[in-house]
Amino acid sequence: MHTDIHCVTRWSKLGTSWRGVSLDTIMAAVDSDFAYAMVHCYGGYTTNVPMADLLGGQAWIAHEFDGRALEPVHGGPARLLVPHLYFWKSAKWVRGLVMQKKDAPGFWEQNGYHRHGDPWREERYA
Predict the structure, then answer these.
(1) Where is the Oxidoreductase molybdopterin-binding domain (predicted)?
(2) Contact call for residues 70 and 92 (beta carbons, < 8 A)
């Protein structure tokens, strides 16, 4: 997949290349009553993401970047990739997703960042 990524600190990287598994494939057997996922990562980081942003071909668990295995410094061996949201939502070192019926803030959201993080709406801070 080729996509642009956008950081909350106002940098973007255009035309990045990724490989991974679509969240649609991973979530196929999960109850559809859930509206949100809390992404849990090694190191204790969490971020909340609406299911509407994870499904429909919009998000992946990525394992390759620019034709090479994803390096640990960039979240390898696997990171969440949600390129249409600010990059803090594309959590590194993913270890699990907890499905939730209600929204709850993750790490950065508890520290003043916007709960959604849409770069086209400038959703940086709460």
Answers:
(1) 4-108
(2) no
What is the rounded CA–CA span in Å between residue 69 and residue 78?
9
Residue 82: CATH number of its domain: 3.90.420.10
Report whether 36 contacts 99 (CB < 8 A).
Answer: yes
Q: How many domains does the chain contain in total?
A: 1
d(CA 118, CA 114): 9
Whether the model pTM is above 0.85: yes
Could you read off the pLDDT of 32-91 as tens digits, one per residue? 789 999 999 999 999 999 999 999 999 999 999 999 999 999 999 999 999 999 999 999
